[in-house]
Specification:
The complex is a heterodimer. By secondary structure, chain A is mainly alpha-helical. Helices cover 73% and strands 0% of the residues of chain A. Chain A has a single domain, classed as Four Helix Bundle (Hemerythrin (Met), subunit A). The chains are: A mainly alpha, B alpha/beta.
Chain lengths: 124, 317
């Protein structure tokens, strides 16, 4: 689901103005999708098989944080929303992240939903 | 307005810069990390007017960066706006305690950004007055022409535990009505502040407030709180729901701290500041008030202790 957020005229320009000026950032966001999907997959494997699930989950949260910080502004509402939920599930529950079951039951399904959404953006 | 924006995400910077440009703020320098920001701050020929920090960055976080920057004399009073997706109370508390002036949440809303930048511009104007005040204090000149408005809040030089009144208001606005129910505030009022203001020079008045601020800081050393000078001889402090020290005890401790300066006041033929601490003010469950109204309420409770009768707090200035 894409389409730029309405910015109103108070910031010195209308929606069309902002759409145009944000296009480079939007292109950058799109250009990073594959790289970020691959990073998510790599960290997911490390969480499942590695010795420091908390550290690897923190890296997943870092990427999700970046996506949620700009997703809605650039028109990728659902992607931003899913990334925000994933980010908070990790950063606000750091103690639980030591438990592999927390990843399997809570974090991994959120990550999977985000990955599906990101992959769908590749088809647009 | 010369702005330094610090964020490790190039996509976010790609969003922020055009938005600032649309607000007419094109003089923006970017840094991708806390270390790079510190280098650029040190290297700048002319100081930045406003600093925008991402809270969550790898390596040095925005909070750590804020602490570092506040220790640089040039940037002690520069508006710092934290930009973050984190809305938890812990993050908000940490940001303001580190010296942030304001807080804006991601995803960026252009209208919100415009309001925050406007606030930073207003602060900048007020700070040119404060900066001149502090410079004169640093020079320790005896003959100083400063202009202080009795009723207005201003940062007290040397009040290390204090934040600016506007920052305290921004902090409460960020907490929002929901979290205000676990927050309380109390006022500390200098009973004879107006008399002191009339009898003393503006510098003497600011010096007196500095003494009171120092006595307050000593008395509340073990308390977790955020404080500011609210103007008209009133200080206000925000605490998490409760205060471990009794009001009467706190008042006595602050007054005792001021007694240490008694000989100086006597030598200058000035009255010794008389302190009153108000009861804790809490947010009402029965109304949707602006979160910052608790500050007026707290100050009013402290003032009502001097006057003998409580004023209706909603009419407080």
């Amino acid at each position: 689901m894409t389409g730029l957020q309405y910015f109103g005229g108070s910031a010195g320009g209308g929606a069309n103005d902002m759409t145009a000026v944000l296009e480079p950032a939007r292109a950058m966001f799109r250009g990073l999708i594959v790289e970020r999907i691959m990073a998510f997959e790599a960290y997911r494997k490390l969480v499942q098989h590695g010795e420091n699930p908390q550290d690897e989950m923190a890296k997943i949260a870092d990427i999700a944080h970046k996506i949620s910080g700009v997703g809605a502004t650039l028109g990728f509402f659902r992607t931003g929303q899913l990334a925000g939920v994933l980010d908070r599930a990790i950063t606000e529950n750091l103690a639980k992240c030591a438990d592999p079951e927390y990843f399997r039951l809570i974090v991994d399904p959120m990550l999977e939903a985000l990955l599906i959404e990101m992959e769908s953006l590749l088809d647009d | 307005m010369k702005i330094l924006a610090v964020d490790d995400d190039p996509v976010f910077l790609g969003v922020l810069l055009p938005m600032l440009g649309a607000l007419g703020k094109a003089n923006v320098t970017i840094a991708r990390s806390g270390d790079e920001a510190l280098f650029k701050l040190a290297d700048a020929a002319e100081a930045f007017d406003c600093l925008l920090f991402d809270l969550q960055m790898p390596g040095m976080s925005g909070i750590q960066l804020c602490n570092h920057v506040r220790n640089l004399p040039v940037y002690r009073r520069t508006p710092i706006v934290m930009i973050t997706a984190m809305t938890g109370k812990r993050f908000i508390d940490d940001a303001f305690a580190a010296g942030a002036t304001d807080y804006i949440t991601k995803p960026l809303d252009p209208i919100d950004l415009k309001a925050r930048i406007g606030m930073a511009e207003r602060l900048l104007k007020e700070r040119s007055i404060t900066a001149s005040l502090e410079k004169k204090f640093d020079q320790r000149s005896d003959i100083i022409a400063i202009d202080v408005d009795f009723d207005s809040p201003f940062p007290i030089p040397g009040f290390e535990r204090g934040v600016e009144y506007l920052a305290l208001e921004n902090y409460l606005l960020m907490l929002g009505n929901k979290r205000m129910y676990s927050t309380a505030a109390f006022g500390i009022s200098v009973k004879n502040a107006h008399l002191f203001f009339k009898k003393s020079s503006p510098l003497g008045f600011v010096n007196m407030l500095g003494d009171v601020a120092s006595a307050i800081s000593d008395a509340v050393k073990s308390e977790q709180m955020m404080m500011a000078y609210a103007g008209a001889g009133n200080f206000v402090a925000v605490v998490s729901n409760n205060l471990s020290t009794e009001r009467v005890e706190l008042e006595a401790m602050i007054q005792s701290g001021i007694e240490d300066f008694a000989s100086f006041y006597a030598a200058d033929r000035l009255p010794l500041p008389q302190i009153k601490v108000g009861d804790l003010a809490r947010t009402s469950f029965f109304g949707l008030f602006n979160p910052t109204s608790i500050l007026d309420h707290a100050v009013n409770l402290a003032q009502s202790r001097q006057d003998g009768k409580p004023k209706p707090w909603w009419s407080a200035a």
